Each structure stands twice: as structure tokens, then as C-alpha cells.
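Intended use. Records such as the DUF4235 domain-containing protein entry shown here are meant for training and evaluating sequence-to-structure methods. They are not intended to support clinical decisions.
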Amino acid sequence: MKNSLSWTVASALSLLVSGAVAEKAVAVGWKAVTGKPAPREEDQVLSYRLGEVVAFAVISGAVMTLTRQLTLRQAAKIHARRSGVVPGADGATALEA
């Protein structure tokens, strides 16, 4: 139970931080490429062309998914190294260094 709880907390915290970093990176990149701020819900609906909104959705979704996967993999490696338990593995075993 302890390992399960520690993994839950570690993965949640790492995902929150990486999500915020990825969101900021996409916003900065979008501004650098287009010269306009990233589309947000609070923006006027018609201030962006449909193509811009679709492109932003695809780019931000891909960056968020990639960031999430890489973050979870790294967090799992760190957790396994510290606890000897591989998160999500049935019959979890210690990792060999």
C-alpha cells in the first residue's frame, strides 16, 4: 500500500508540474511563430481563424501527450530505483541497475 500511495503522489505531482511547463512552452512557441498569443477560452471566439485553432489544438495536444509520457516514464524509473517496485507491473519486481 505504501508504494502504491507514494507512486500515486509522485506521478500526480510530476504530471502537474510537467503539464504547466508544457503549456507555457507551447504558448511561448506559438507567440514566437505566429506573433499572436496562444488561443485561450477567454479570447474572443472569432479572433482566430479555424485553421489556427486546429493547428494549436494539434500542436498542444501532441506536446502535452509527449510530455506526459516522458514524465511518467522518468518518474517510474526514479520510483523504482528508490523503492525497488516498478509501478504498474503485475508482480512488481526490483529494477536491476
